[in-house]
């Protein structure tokens, strides 16, 4: 017969309420009683029903994670940070991938709310005014990653994408490049837009003419966009909005008989693992992706436990990594 909380209480000689307090890590339970109850739980092989515990405490041990593109190497690292932090705090993780489809994103959010997740970490493909109002009406704790929307009730964890792009382009300009192109990400993604603005302002401040090609955050888009750029602009340097775009661009540059960095210097953004495997090694903006995930769960945990009020935005530090694709020595 499957053991129940009644069997645990009976053998440990405590009440069922005490067993429940032990399971919920109530600090008011005496150490001697906690150890006795936990020993009996192990002896009996008792596994409490998560559903029953949720009904009894009006809380859930599950949080949701909504990703825009699980095939992008950036997001598994982020998900790992979220999963590790969730596990340490006693949460299970429910992951959904939207393929950058706003309709699917809304569907997954509502499904998670219906499943009574305690909170959601959201990397949104689009966050328009209507979506923000919809999310706010759900009254479910939400933390945004890589997105920051002013005047909303949502916490956010991100880097300063504008500053990162400005620094990357200024670095290229400082190395003597005057024709610096930009492979931009999708217009509906805030991080891509902020990186584009950083590029434009760095070029403007140096009195240089910008050249922007807009596509998606994929390797294939980098190949296609770079082909168009090489035909129209003839750049000596390139800042790509993410590393996949940069790696696709390098592939196209090589196909056309040009060399990186001798003919075109390249900087990406994200510092995904592939950036250290490419030839030449890819210069990039290193983002603390894993720590973004950890921080997001910590903020979500605070919301779920009600330990603070108000909105909190965490801007983590980025770093320019100068490797071979800019003509320098690798900087690990």
TrEMBL record:
<keyword id="KW-0804">Transcription</keyword>
<dbReference type="GO" id="GO:0000976">
    <property type="term" value="F:transcription cis-regulatory region binding"/>
</dbReference>
<dbReference type="InterPro" id="IPR000843">
    <property type="entry name" value="HTH_LacI"/>
</dbReference>
<keyword id="KW-0238">DNA-binding</keyword>
<dbReference type="Pfam" id="PF00532">
    <property type="entry name" value="Peripla_BP_1"/>
</dbReference>
<dbReference type="InterPro" id="IPR010982">
    <property type="entry name" value="Lambda_DNA-bd_dom_sf"/>
</dbReference>
<protein>
    <submittedName>
        <fullName>LacI family transcriptional regulator</fullName>
    </submittedName>
</protein>
<keyword id="KW-0805">Transcription regulation</keyword>
<feature type="domain" description="HTH lacI-type">
    <location>
        <begin position="3"/>
        <end position="57"/>
    </location>
</feature>
<dbReference type="InterPro" id="IPR028082">
    <property type="entry name" value="Peripla_BP_I"/>
</dbReference>
<dbReference type="Pfam" id="PF00356">
    <property type="entry name" value="LacI"/>
</dbReference>
<dbReference type="GO" id="GO:0003700">
    <property type="term" value="F:DNA-binding transcription factor activity"/>
</dbReference>
<dbReference type="InterPro" id="IPR001761">
    <property type="entry name" value="Peripla_BP/Lac1_sug-bd_dom"/>
</dbReference>
